[in-house]
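Exam prep: given the inputs below (a chain plus NAP), describe the expected output before reading on.
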Amino acid sequence: MKYAIITGASRGLGEGIAKCLIQEQLSVISVSRTENEELKKLAVDTGTFYQHYSCNLSLEKEVQEVFWEIAHKIFKRNPVDVYLFNNAGVIEPIHTVGNLDPTPIIRNIQVNLIAPMIITNIFLSKFRQTATKVYVVNVTSGAATRPIEGWSVYCSSKAGLNMFTETAALEQVSGGSDHKIIAFSPGVMDTEMQGTIRSSSKDEFKDLDQFKEYKEQNKLLSADIVAGALVELVLRGNAESGKVYHIRDLIG
Ligand SMILES: NC(=O)c1ccc[n+]([C@@H]2O[C@H](COP(=O)([O-])OP(=O)(O)OC[C@H]3O[C@@H](n4cnc5c(N)ncnc54)[C@H](OP(=O)(O)O)[C@@H]3O)[C@@H](O)[C@H]2O)c1
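Solution:
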């Protein structure tokens, strides 16, 4: 049996990943604050196992409780493969340094960086020295390696996620483990996150006009197409552990 856990599957890229994996007949567990009814229906229609857990990823206690419960539950079924997609993310706060409130800074780092660290740690701990292969995908961004004015917190969280991915992958190799951990940068997609970006002001975000143009000129990628390419890489692409993959490497 193969399980996939996807954070942020209620919409956007996470929803696309969940849809693909349900169609591939993997058992899917979705984690976010709200549930996506369409995923539940798709699972019923395709006869696939699907379960939703409600969890606020900015709250460490909730993350610990929910993910240990998921890990125990899956462990008991002795799966062949476990795929963990740390996909949930937030872009806010959008503003220049000197104009930031502390609460959104903390929430961003908790959702984008601390939650993936804690969740990955739980799964690599639970499935240490078992026959189950754990495959972690951390969804990152081009902003991890390119400073974008107004996005200092987001850029920093994704840069941290890349380094966490690379370090954890090295450790798995040194420990003689087959578990894999990669990062994936999905490109600029037509999701709610882009809507949030476009609703900021020029004062907060210098490149606002460029991002409005992406939408007006139809340059945004479809989340479903990006999800399809990622799932293909993960299930059949023999990806290299520790590597940061970019959507442009996968689709022309
Ligand atoms: N869109 C882009 O252009 C773009 C570009 C590069 C990278 N990315 C990355 O791609 C990933 C997916 O982004 P997207 O565009 O699909 O975003 P999105 O449409 O805004 O969806 C974000 C998802 O994250 C979940 N989430 C946010 N805060 C949460 C919290 N506190 N607790 C639990 N879940 C939370 C949301 O679920 P609930 O609200 O239901 O909790 C939602 O399912 C993110 O990591 C993002 O940084 C996006």
